[in-house]
Structure formats: structure tokens, C-alpha cells
Amino acid sequence: MNLKCTGILTALAVSAVMAQEAAPVEAAPVAPAPVAEEAPAQVAPVAEQAAPAEDKFTAVEQELAPENLFAEPAAVRGEDAARPVQKQTTRKFVYRPVYSPAEIENSSGNVKTIYVSQVSTADTIDMDQLRGLIPLKFTFGIQGFIGNEFLSGDNGRYEYDRYSGLTWSVGAFAIFPLDEYNMALKTGVLFEHDKVSNSYNDTYKETFGEYRVSFSQYRISVPLLLSLKSARSNLYFDVGVQPSFATSDIFRLKSYNSSSPEKSVSIKEDMMDNDYRSGIDWSIVFGFGIRANRYLGFDARFTWGISNQYDDYNAWPINNLSSKSVTVGATFYAF
């Protein structure tokens, strides 16, 4: 019994001693004076620690900048370990916007942006234009020529008879492609007029004098030409034949004798009505031209006659005459 009481009293005594030692520890934070004196001293370290945080953020921002995107940081030990050391590189970066027609740096110059459209408009181009090819397409239009005409030949009396003058023609044409780019058949109808003349010193009906001879011809010509060109060019060459159908031919022979006016000569003859003129003339045609744009072109042609236009005319030596012409002209396309 005494032992039990002694143990209990001993336990209570130990608890009281422990309680007295714990009381000053709990009361220590309550004292305001020491805390108030140490508070100002703690503000500066906090401020000093905030600055490095801002520096780290700025350093990261610089590291992610385009010019430093591939910068190579080097590890440093010691007091500068918190600051990343940047090693600049010589790499160059070009930003290329997506779906933008802006200029892009490359080795060949500016980049040409091509847009694909399902509907043809004034701004769209087809694949032939994109590849630099110029296709042949069916078209028609009108054209006109002007130039020089020559009648010449050996009539047996003189070495050569030569007559020259002005020629012009106007008409319609059509182009029929034979393949996609290179060959086409060109035909049409031309209304032509020639007026050629020359002067000779000769004897006519026992009267010597100066005689002026002229021809005024009208005909309808049908050129049948093969047109050739390169796939990437608007320049073309024409070769073919041309039959011409005479509709009118007036021959004039004039001479004036001042000493004997009664001996003056003036002859006018319709060569078609008197059957001195062949009905069809055949010629070989060579030419070239260029289509300047969609509606306008320019041409040059040389026509070599291979038919004798006159025969069996006794009033004046005009047998075995054939024509040649050199002309230039303009062509107007419908589309």
C-alpha cells in the first residue's frame, strides 16, 4: 500500500516539474518587444532575394528570343552560378509566314505565289501559260496588206518587160489547228487590186515616141497556207499556194506627139472581155508574222506568180508576163 502511494506521488511530482519547464517556452512568442526590434532587419533580405528572381525571369526571356534561340549555355561554378552565361552563335533565322505572298529569302530570288481556282477569271492563268507554252486555237478575223507589185517576163522582143506599182488587198481569214502547238492550216479570201506601169521609147505604127503602158487589175485570191511556229513563241512562218481569180483587167497604152498630135496614141482595152487574160493565176506564197497580243498581229508576205497572165495580144508585146509582190499588213483576230 505504501509502495503504491509512493509511486503515485513520484509520478505527480515528475509531471509538475515538466509542466514548470514547458511554461516559459510557450510564453516566449507572446513577448512583443523582441519581435518589433527584429522586424526591420528582415525586410532587406527579402528585397534582396526578390531581385535575383526578376533577373532569372529576364534571363529566360532573353534565352527564348529568336537571336538566342539556339544559344549554348555554359555551366559555371561559384558565385555566378545563378546567372546563365550565353554563348552567341552565327546562325541566321528567317521567319516564313504561312499562306502569305510576302517575299521569302532563298537562293533564287522572290517566291511567286500561285493560287488554284476552279473558275476562270481575268486574273487566272491556265497550265499552258504557267509552263510558258502558247497553244494553237481556232480563230478567224480580218486582215489587210499593202506593198509593191511587179509584172515581168520575156516576151521575145525585149530582154525583159518590167512593170511595177502599188498593190493592196483586204479580206477575211481563218486558222484551223492541226496539232496543239506547232502547225495550223490558214486560209481565207482576199480582194486584191494592182496598178503597175512603165514607160518605153519605141516605135508604134511607124511612129517613134515615148509610150506609157499600165495595167489595172482586180482579182479574188484564196491563200492556202501551212502555218508553222514554236510551242513557246508567237512568231510563225507561212508557206503555201494561192489561186487568184481575175475579175477585171484594164490595159492602157498612151503616147503624145507634140509635133504631130494626130500621131498620138491612146488605147484602152478590157483584157478580160477580149480574152487576152487568163482566168486563174497560180502563185507560191512565203510569209512570216507575229501575233502581238490576243487581237492584233503583223504579217509580211512574198508572192511568186508561176502563171502567164497574158497571151496572144498583138497590139503590144505583153506575152508571158507573170506577177510578183512583196507586201506587209495587219491582222485583227476575233478572239
Detailed description of the structure:
With 335 residues, the chain is an alpha+beta fold. 19% of the residues lie in helices and 41% in strands. Strands 1, 2, 3, 4, 5, 6, 7, 8, 9 and 10 form a 10-stranded antiparallel β-sheet that branches. The longest helix is centred in the first third of the chain and has 32 residues, at 32-63. It is rod-shaped.
- The mean pLDDT is 75
Which residues sit in consecutive blocks of at least 5 with pLDDT less than 50?
Answer: 24-51, 70-76, 89-104
As a whole number of angstroms, the C-alpha radius of gyration is: 54 Å
Residue share in helix: 10-25%
How far from one another are the termini? 135 Å
How many helices? The count is 3
Shape: rod-shaped
The beta-strand count equals: 10
Order of helices and strands: HHHEEEEEEEEEE
Biggest β-sheet strands, sense, barrel: 10 strands, antiparallel
User: What structural class is derived from the secondary structure elements?
Assistant: alpha+beta
Please report which band the strand proportion falls in: under 5%, 5-15%, 15-25%, 25-35%, 35-45% or over 45%.
Answer: 35-45%
Features of this protein?
alpha+beta; 335 residues; 3 helices; 19% helix; ten-stranded antiparallel β-sheet
Indicate the topology.
Elements lengths: L1 H26 L4 H32 L63 H4 L8 E15 L7 E17 L5 E22 L2 E15 L2 E6 L5 E21 L9 E6 L9 E12 L4 E10 L16 E12 L2
Antiparallel strand pairs: 1-2, 1-10, 2-3, 3-4, 3-5, 4-6, 5-6, 6-7, 6-8, 8-9, 9-10
Overview in brief:
The chain has 335 residues and is of the alpha+beta class. It has helices at 2-27, 32-63, 127-130; strands at residues 139-153, 161-177, 183-204, 207-221, 224-229, 235-255, 265-270, 280-291, 296-305, 322-333.
